[in-house]
Write a structure and sequence with these properties.
By secondary structure, the chain is of the alpha+beta class. The chain has one domain: 2-Layer Sandwich (Mago nashi protein). Helix content is 31%, strand content 30%. The protein contains six helices and six strands. It has a six-stranded antiparallel sheet with strand order 4-3-2-1-5-6, with helices on both faces.
Length: 184
Amino acid sequence: MSSSTGNSNNNSGNTTSYAKDSVLKELQMKYDLVLVAGHENHAWGHTAGYKIIALKDNEWMGYDYYVNRGNTSDESHIENCNINPRVIEQGAAATAWKFIQQQNTAILKKEKDNDPCSHDKAKQCNINDGGDWHIMILKPASVEETRYYEPEFFENCCPGNDNRKLFLEAFHKIEEAVATGKGR
């Protein structure tokens, strides 16, 4: 299920964010484990925002990373963040990783044939100019990644895809572990 250079479970057929991103590759080499929850949008340009938790020597670090790949130039910004103090007592980063380990197959597996949205045209679940949501599990010698197109929208519009639901739960656990912004 893992590969050393690219995406092992990307069902969209597009080049992965990871394959184009030197910062993610650098974090992969620096840490024993990197968990990435990312929003990527291709409407009117290409932007991506990532919440990242990384493990080295039993210590977790958080990152908030933003990329704007414009037509003429690229811009990116990465900020070191502490693990969110509101949830550190609960071990949010370790909890996110434990959840992903327990549910790994389901989180990384997309079953389009079992997705209620793909068969129920009456619900008229349609969205344009949305973005892909990614979960990446980066280890020094492997990359696992999956993505969903606007999973919260589709979960609200036509719930019932258990893998998408687990994906969203894991995604939010990673996001919650990263302390960013005022008031966190």
